[in-house]
Structure formats: structure tokens, C-alpha cells
Write a structure and sequence with these properties.
- The chain has 17 helices and 31 strands.
- By secondary structure, the protein is α+β, with helices and mostly antiparallel strands.
- The chain has three domains: 59 residues; 354 residues, Methylamine Dehydrogenase, Chain H; 265 residues, MetI-like fold.
- Strands 6, 7, 8, 9 and 10 form a five-stranded antiparallel β-sheet that branches.
- Strand 6 and strand 7 form a beta hairpin.
- Helix 4 crosses helix 12 and helix 7 packs across helix 10.
- The longest helix is centred in the N-terminal third of the chain and has 46 residues.
- The two termini are 40 Å apart.
Amino acid sequence: MSKTGITRDALSGKGGSDAQKAVLRRLLMRSTIDKAATRFIGFGGISIIVAVLLIFVFLFLEVVPMFVSAEVEPLANGKIQTSEQRLLAVDSDDRGEVLVRLTEENDSLNLALSKFNDLDVTTTSVDLPYESGRQWIYDSVDGWYVNEDHGHIHFGQIKEKEIFQDGERTLAPKFEQVSKGDGFTLAEDADVKLMQFKALSNALALSYAITDDAQNTSYYLQVWKKARSFMSTTATYKTSATYELPVTAEPKAVFIDNQLRWAYAVHESGIDLINVKGKEPKFHSTALFDHKMTSTSMLLGNKSILVGDADGGISQWSLVRDEENNFELARLRRLEHNNAPIIAIKPEDRRRGFYAVDANGKAGVFFTTSERKLAEWDISDLNLNQLHLISSPRSNALIAYDNQKIEIFHVKNEHPEVSFKSMWQKVWYEGYAEPEYIWQSSAATNDFEPKLSLAPLAYGTLKATFYAMLFALPLAICGAIYTAYFMAPAVRKKVKPAIEFMEALPTVILGFLAGIWLAPMVESYLPGVLLSLFMLPVVMVLISFIWTVVLPKNIKALVPDGWEPVLLGPFIALTVYVCFAFSYPLEAAFFGGDAKIWMRDTLGIAYDQRNSLVVGIAMGFAIIPTIFSIAEDAVFAVPKSLTFGSLALGASPWQTLVRVVLPTASPGIFSAVMIGTGRAVGETMIVLMATGSTPIMDMNIFEGFRTLSANIAIEMPEAEVHSTHYRLLFFAAFCLFMFTFLFNTTAEVVRQRLREKYGSL
């Protein structure tokens, strides 16, 4: 006997009539179809679950690498030079694969190249034209150098050119000495001590100290501006300015910013800020340290100074504006290394990360914006008193060397910019007066500091959802209740399909209309729009009162029951027309002719053309059909027996609605609200086209915003694959996925409890 009660004997003809056999065959076929449908539907349901899990796994795997700490491994070590040579500089090629050693021997400059994996073998060795000097400073970022001999200096630049031949990559050095002849003179036969040298985009800057016969030391900053000739492609440099710096203490380093406006003289107890924009330098102010300075360096972009102290911390100082809009130096953050004094700091060439070494030989890699210490290792076998650090251009290798030995470390540090603080908390960025939530993933300059706070994007998502639901929820729920409970069946048959048809409209069309037509119209008729939002409920209540109380019954009898809403249409249209007609007169009479300027000047409320009001209206129209359809079905599905029973017991229609119908339909209404909210959270095209896509945190209804989904749509095409920016966009998608999952799960739990509570009615 099968589950359907059909026996094989009955089907094989051993019993029963032909009619019975035909019925049994139909039952068997129906049973087979039911089983097939059950398995197919089950397979479909499992497939959906598997697909959702695969999406979760994919997003998770794309996001996880951002939170992995840096890995540092020893790559190579060896001798740095021979006893006959004088080491001038060590550098790395762009890929971080070849070591470049600059040495001086017999008044000639030698450039030797070796691969990281075999330092003892020199692949290229070239003698370059060179003016010998007593002091030497090398800028590893662009290959510039300056050397000094008895007050005279020479500038030059060393570059490596890649050559590919027979599948092999080799480097061909290119040397260019900028200063010709005797070079530039700092002081004749004086005791000159070079301090810092920096090659800027259009100038060279050198700080130095001169000690006279009376052992008085003066500190100078000299700038050479770039000058190009139309007859030559080679740039020449001419002395632009020489400043004697007014310092409060003996500086250990002097830096200058990219605009050649501010000089920073760093001494043990603070930083002297000096304005060098005019003909004469002007002392501005001094920022004092809380700890004794032991090491310092300039961060990428020349806007911040890193200061290592005797207590094992590294502070970042930068120019900010105070409350009176004056510049002052402020400490943005302090990163902790260990308790030993910091003896060396080396910034990365292309990011705002840096390496630091303390007096115990503990090296660490840090990132300023995320305030993370990413790795720590030991290099105490080097002579720490002669220690130098070089970061490879791609930040994938660190070269540490003293006067005899060199060690190279492979650094895997792909995403140092990311931390919980940098994504969700306020961060004090360079140039900002205080910590803020900022999203700005790219800019036109290479020394740009990425601002990767997801807080304004999440805020924009919630803001869009709030205003959309504020507009859609009352209209959709109230409309669904009236349509299902009070409206005449003939009218309902026309109204419900018409509203559901709205759901078929592509959101890109709604966004296009909102951005091109609705936003300019709201801006032009702002007083009329705001007045209509106030007057429409008033007029509807007034018309309902007149219909219910004032009009005689013989007139009301002319309109069939359930058709009353049709009469409201002309009054609604007339109200909107009158409000818009009075928009300009109201604006001229009460707002000085321009309501937007009046709000800005009087109330301090800014107005953007594409703002939250426009998005709320447009997105509200997009989600009204969803909420309306589900809620209307829930109310209409309430058994009529419950309604008739309540009315038979003496309850009024409104009492029946509130006490019986709405509690019974509450699970469906709640589901409608949750699905509509989920639709609003994930909406992309409307917010993309109808807002200014400005990632700000302001609840002002007249300003725009940027949502997580819109940000993904805008920036994913320009994001480098597997970069921090790329993975952070996937993290935004992961956040949306988890929010929707948790939101829907909570909604389902609440819906089930409502069903259990009111299911017995």
C-alpha cells in the first residue's frame, strides 16, 4: 500500500472495475506530480539558501585581508662596503628587488646594484661624474643628493631606467648634476653643517647651520627655484631666498612645507613655527612637547612632522586653524611603540605609514591615520648608533644598515589604512581643525591622505531610509487599510492594480525624474511645496468634516458607499495648485524674495537642490506600492466572520477596525513595513541620481547625503582591484548584507510572535 492508498494489485488489474482503475491512475499521477513539485520547490529553497551563503562567503573572503596584521620576514643580509670606500647612500629600485649602493672612492662616485637575494654579487657597477664633498645628504624619494665641501655645495639627481632585453630586467643608471661649475656657495671657508635637504616639485630646499669663530651658531634655510628654458629640456635652479631662522632653541632638524610658506625648527622641547613667505622670516609660535624629543622626520606630503620621544612614543604634529582662524601646530595623535627612546624614524614614500626603531633595537611599522602598530621585530644586531633606514618605494621592503652591515626585510603590509577607528570613529586628519567623520577615497595629488570613514555613508543610508519611510509609511498603511476595509469593491478593483503597477516602474526612471524635474521644481516653489505638505492634511480633514457633519443626508445619499474618496481628488489637486500659485507672493512677502537665502542667513539652514526632501518623495513613491500591496492583502485577508461578529455585538466600524481587524492583520502589516524598509536601505539609483552624493553627517532635510549602496555604484568602477579602497567597498556591501539579514531575521521573529498572539482571534 502506498501513501495514497493505491495498491499495485489494483493497478495491475487483479481487482476493481475499469472506472476504479482510472481513478486510481489519476490519483497516482497526482501523487507523482505532488512529490516532484515538493522536491523541486525544496531544491529551489535550498538553492536560494546556498546562494545567499555563497554571497556571504565571497564578501567575507574579500573583506578579511583588510584586518590582517603586517608580516615582516628577513630577506637578506651582508656587508655594506669595503674598507676603502666611503658609503654615501643606500636605496632600492621601484619594485623593491634591487639594492642600490652609492659609495665614494678616490674622489669618484660609484653606483653598485645587487639583487636582494644575492647581495654579494654586483650586477651593475658604474663610475659617475661627481664633485667630491665633505658632507652628503641623499633624498631616497626622488634620488636627489647634495654634497658640501668648505661652504660650497653641489646638487644632483640619480635615476634608474628599466631595460628589458631577452626577458631579463636590468637597471641602467642615469646621472644628472644640476649645479654646474663651482656649484652654490653657502659660506666661504666656514664651518657649515648640513641638516635637511628636500626636493620639492618646483624647488630645492636645504637647511644648514653655520658656526663662526666665536662659536656662535646661526641656522639658515635656503631655497632654489626651478627655471626652465624654452631652448632646453633640462631644468636649472637659481637661488630664490636665504633665510636666517629666528629659533628659540638649538634645532635638531628644520623642515619646510610644499608651499614654501612655513618652516619647522624641531628642538628637544618643541617646534618653532616660522613664516618664510615674505622677504624676512617671521617667528609665529612654539608648540611644546610633553616628552623629550629624540628623533624626528617629515611625513609624506610635508604637512605633518613625526616626533619620536624618550618614552617610546611617536607623535604626529600638523598645522591646524584655531577658533580665530589662525594657524597653530597641534598634536593629532600619539602612537606607542615601547618604553625605550625612539632613535630612528623613516616614513614610507607613498603612504602615511612609517618605520620606527627604539634604543633596544625593536623596529615597528605604523600607520598614522588608522593609528595602528602593525608589526614589531628585532634589529639589535646592527650598530644602533650608526643606524639608517630606507623604505622601498612600494613599501614592500625595509633596508636597515649601519657602517658595516646591511639587513633587508620583506614587508607584507597591504592594508594599513584600515582600523575600527578609521572606519567608525572620528579621525583627526591633516588640515582639519578637529577630528571628523570624512569619506574621501581619492584626490588629484599623490600625497593625498585617504579618508575612509564609513560612518557618513551609514548615516546617509539611515537618513535616506528615514525620510523615505516618513513619506511613504503613513500613505501606504492608511491607504491599504482604507482600500481593504472601507472602499467599495468596484473602486478597489481599480485602485489596487493601479498602485501595484507603480511598483513596475524602474527606479532609474524615478531617479532621473527626481533629479531632472522634481529637484528644480522643489527649489523654485519651495514655500509652495512646504505649504502644500501642511495644507493637504488640513484640507482633507476639513472636507471629511463637512461631508460627515455639515452636508444633509439627501446629498450624501447621491454618492454610493465606498466612493467618497473619489470626491477628494479635485480638492487635493486644487489645494496643490493654490499652494504653488501663492509660492512666489509668500516668498516675496515673508522671505525677502528668496526662501533659501533667508533660511541660510536667519536659521543657519543650508539648501542644496538635490536634497533629502527630494529623495524622500521619490523613494517614497518607489516603496509605497510594496508596503501598500502587502498590507492591503493582510487587512483584506482578515476573515469576514470576525468583522461581522464584532459589528453584530454592537461595535462600530472604527472599533472593529482597531480592536479586531488591525490586530489580526498586524503580522502582515509588520512584514510590509519591514520589506519596505529593506527596500529603502538597499535603494541605489534614486539616491544616486537625486542627491548630491555628498558624504556628510547632517540631518538637515534640505541637504544631500551619500548612502553605502550609492557609494559602491559610484566608486567601484574606479577602484583598483584588491586595493584597500576596493576591499572597503566590499566591506560596505558586507555591512548592507548583514544589516538586511539581521533586520529581516528580527522582523520574522516579531511577525511570528504577533501571529501566535493574534492567531486565535
